[in-house]
Amino acid sequence: MIRPSRRGVLTSAAVVGAAGIGAGVSAVASRPAAAGSPTASRTVPFHGSRQAGVTTPAQDSLVFAALDVTTKRAGDLADVLQRWSAAAATMTTGVPVGGPGGLGGASDEPPQDTGEAHELPAANLTVTLGYGPSLFDERFGLADRRPAALEELPALPGEQLDPTKVGGDLCLQACADDPQVAFHAVRNLVRIGRGTVRVRWMQLGFGRTSTTSTAQSTPRNLMGFKDGTANLRAEDTADLEKFVWVGGQGAPSADQEWMRGGTYLVARRIRMLIESWDRASLGEQERVIGRAKESGAPLSGTQEFDALDLDKTVHGKPAIDVAAHVRLAAPDTNGGVKMLRRGYSYTDGLDVATGQLDAGLFFIVFGNDPHQQFVPVQRRLGTHDALGEYIKHTGSGIFACPPGVQRGGAWGEGLFS
């Protein structure tokens, strides 16, 4: 079982149980988008050298939860991480928490599994864990284990953050092709952690807004534009090593060995001012994004995967406007910076204060140095992007996602050992 170490934290000897809105934040070579299902299988392995849910072909639904740790005992937290690992490994196979009998048991006790995903397929479920900067305060003796890159995001231009949708000691990202399967995963993990963790804020997402595999076609966001045309893909292994994985080939060295092979997650809740956008002319919409709405082609080309020609002019003016989103987000105008995006559309009904829809993009981006990747790009976008007139950032968080869990291991081992 888990036991305290001489550092006052934990070691584990237990064996875990079963089993940017428009396209342009990162660039890859032109390629056709092949049609096909997100994965050949309906299950995604939980165990491996890297966590699933990063380069995994993006599923259709998301449940993202930021949580606070309510205990001051490191042993309690490590125990929850161990139990989460076992439960997540089981649920990703389509089996209830506790195994095939998880819905049964003694009639005077709660069942081990909540049951709403019973008889549903695993639906390519992935569960990804991250640690927030606040986890490394004085509570658990982890201050000297905080990676240098894991700092709270600075204030960024144009944001209007809701304090109830910011931060967190931990995050859980559950993605699946069935929204009930994704919700079931987070619900059960929160239930398992009750008394040790509590939800700080949560976001449900539908309709992926990025492509993370060449086997996927490019989706559209709620503005009606293709999103993720130039995203990094799972097949771009050299760029993933350089820009996504901590300590990867060509990347900055890992200053904390427990994070080697991991990555950093930045989450941004971006509300779209849909009513204003819907009143804009087609020409204005395409100028703001820098792409044709129907085809997804850059305004300097004719096909979706044509490279951006930022020098092309039409009637003496740039074909892609100087304030267009794709120009300002492109690696060529940001010192070659690339990131892996994994966003989802969201709607939270009506904003009763304004009578307008509360809907937009829940933007998730992975990189190995967010303060040198996401932050400078977002500063540029927040200052100059024409899209800023139609959006506002209302939620935010940054988390360190450790490497994957091997069979017989558990989340938290590298951090607490």
List the helices and strands and how they pair.
Layout: E1 2-4, E2 10-12, E3 61-69, H1 74-91, E4 126-131, E5 170-176, H2 179-192, E6 197-208, H3 237-243, E7 263-272, H4 274-279, H5 282-289, E8 313-314, E9 317-318, H6 325-329, E10 340-341, E11 344-351, E12 356-367, H7 374-384, E13 391-401, H8 413-416
Antiparallel strand pairs: 1-2, 3-5, 3-6, 4-5, 6-11, 7-12, 7-13, 8-9, 10-12, 11-12
Question: Can you characterise this structure?
Answer:
- By secondary structure, the chain is α+β, with helices and mostly antiparallel strands.
- Helix content is 18%, strand content 21%.
- The chain has eight helices and 13 strands.
- It has helices at residues 74-91, 179-192, 237-243, 274-279, 282-289, 325-329, 374-384, 413-416; strands spanning 2-4, 10-12, 61-69, 126-131, 170-176, 197-208, 263-272, 313-314, 317-318, 340-341, 344-351, 356-367, 391-401.
- The strands form three sheets. Strands 3, 4, 5, 6, 7, 10, 11, 12 and 13 form a nine-stranded antiparallel β-sheet that branches.
- β1 and β2 form a beta hairpin.
- α1 runs antiparallel to α2.
